Amino acid sequence: MSAMTHELKASFAFIERNFFLSRRYWGWELAFLVYSAAGALSIAFIGAKQGDPRLLLTLMVGAIFWNYLSVVFSWIAETIQIERWEGTLEYTFMAPVRRSTHLFGAVAYAMVYGLIHTAAIVVAMVLFFPDEVTVAHANVLTIGGFMVLGSFSLVGVAMLAAILPLLFVERGMQMAFVLQSVLLLVSGVYYSIDVLPGWMQVLSWFSPATYALDGVRKGLIDGVGLTALWGDIWPLLVMGTLFIPFGLWAFGTAERYAKRTGKLKRVG
Question: What global pTM score does this model have?
């Protein structure tokens, strides 16, 4: 019990540290928020121009929910890079805490931060489209369920992406950003995956965002119940069950390799 309490306190310490980082760089955080809101509104105006309420809601859900997923993905994928920027890489990896404790702290903060960030964009959407945004038929349980499932399913992928900056000091973050861009392309964020070439549709099957976005849209626009969307639920359950343990194992293996080969350093 005392060991579990120690690990929980250590996870909270990483949450607290990330909060202080966000507070220190509040100017950049505000700039990124304005940029994200402007991007989401730009996409929504396409639907408004067409005069199609369903298209508008489809684009808005894509913009809002992808913002949440991308924020969560980025915070986790940049875990190592943040340590390098702050000059705390050696201290963090020498600290007497489990690596899973470190990563779960990063995950918890990423989810909370993502929700706050996304809530601000939702407010902007409502202010710009007060008449078009309607949730009369929305199924709140479905929306909430897919946000939770989508978040945890993406965590494992983000942990794998976090390995790249660990192994490739100078190019790791670029590689992680490319992976995030591929997820954006194949996950049907702003369009149905049916319009993609066949080989890209196959890639979309392995993206948690594909199923999460489909479930949120059906729950918000059509009011479909959670139990009626088992086709989207079971892939997310499988991905969350497999990707998170595999991501933790892969990160631990990469960390040991980086320490053994001297790649665990602040600069290239």
Answer: 0.84
Distance, in Å, from the CA atom of 65 to the CA atom of 220, rounded to the nearest integer, reads 12
* 115: exposed, middle or buried (Cβ count in 10 Å: 0-12, 13-18, 19+): middle
Q: Specify if 69 maps to a domain.
A: yes
In a domain, 268, yes or no: no
44-86, pLDDT tens digit by residue? 888 877 777 788 888 888 888 888 888 888 888 888 888 887 7
pLDDT for the residue numbered 85: 79
Judge whether 267 lies within some domain.
no
- Among 266, 228, 248, which Cα is nearest to 86's? 266
40-to-49, 122, 187 alpha-carbon distances in Å: 15, 9, 17
Segment 116-134 shows an average pLDDT of: 81
**Structural domain total, the chain:** 1
pLDDT in tens, 212-247: 999 988 888 888 888 889 999 999 999 989 988 998
DSSP string, the chain: -HHHHHHHHHHHHHHHHHHHHHHHTHHHHHHHHHHHHHHHHHHHHHHHHHT-HHHHHHHHHHHHHHHHHHHHHHHHHTHHHHHHHHT-HHHHHHSSS-HHHHHHHHHHHHHHHHHHHHHHHHHHHHHH-TTT---TT--HHHHHHHHHHHHHHHHHHHHHHHHHHHH-TTTHHHHHHHHHHHHHHHTTSSS-GGGS-HHHHHHHTT-HHHHHHHHHHIIIII---GGGGHHHHHHHHHHHHHHHHHHHHHHHHHHHHHHHHT--SS--
Supply the range of the domain harboring residue 47: 2-261
